[in-house]
Amino acid sequence: METITIKDIARALNLSTSTVSRALRNSYEINAETKKLVMEYAEKMHYRPNPIALSLRDSKSKSIGVIIPEIANNFFSQLINGIESIAYSLGYHTVIFQSHESYEREVANTNYLVSRKVDGLLVSLSSLTTDLVHFEELIEKGMPIVFFDRVPNDIETHKVVVDNFLGSYEATEHLIQSGRRRIAHLTSPIYLSIATERLAGYKKALEDNGIAFDESYVKYCHHGGKLTTENEAAMQELLSMPEPPDAILAASDRLTSGCLSVLHKNHIRIPEEIALVGFTNIGVADLLNPPLTAVVQPAMEMGQQAVELLIRLIENPKKISKFETRSFKTSLMVRESSAGSRS
Questions:
Q1: Nearby residues of 136 by Cβ (< 8 Å), 6 or more positions away
Q2: Which residues neighbour 40 within 8 Å (Cβ) at sequence distance 6 or greater?
Q3: Hey, what domains does the chain have and what are their CATH numbers?
Q4: Residue ranges of the HTH lacI-type domain (predicted)?
Q5: SS3 of 251, please?
Q6: Do the Cβ atoms of 335 and 290 come closer than 8 Å?
């Protein structure tokens, strides 16, 4: 099969090659109708940009570096699917690295990707990252970076997040309405943006329902649930309290699965003795024992939005007048792990 070129598309649609080129790059200069016409024809004819030619012409690698805590996490794997779907359609390749919740690995991954001349970075911070100098220096030098999910407050750039406060608030209020009063919160280090926001939503829901906040019911896992021993120790502390919790809100996939495991090992009935709600995008949440009530995040859409913002930074660096923070709503899927009033 012969390879179709931009000139072929331009000839077939009676457009200039420059118009077709800009439409394929999703340029703001081309109207939506023309973009749609060009993209549909390009897809129909199996057009694929030549990465070598693009790199030589634009002095760009047409590659994007992605740094996430871990791939073996349903939320992040769905994010990657969103990132790759948009990046590929716009002629970019993605190079994915895992920090494994390590600051040192995050820095090493960043340095390697920059040395390989990626055009930009998409980053979700590790749970142990408190020093942001490696990103601050790159942004000062003009490297396009977009943060998603776990984002820094002190760096000016595009960010893509969910409304963690509201998601946590709704989950906590659901537990209160089902009769729970001693609600524990199992979370990540407090300096992570997601942990701060989810803790605030939890505390506000307690306050609005006349329940005093008790710090002893909040446990911080500094490795974000990666270390099983850390997760189990936090759970055992909760279960050993004079008045153990009658419900738990767990703030991530790993924390949720670890919490569920400890409850089963201790033969604690869910939800009769302790109800459980997790922040999780596990696809089999309804198949767990019992089926898990979960705060679900629109990970695919977050990935798509993050890479679109990054490519806009890469291709139009002088057009940015104001950085955006795009926030998505979560949804609460109520299942048996928290359903019904406490007996």
A1: 155
A2: none
A3: 6-48 (no CATH), 63-161+299-328 (3.40.50.2300), 164-297 (3.40.50.2300)
A4: 4-58
A5: coil
A6: yes
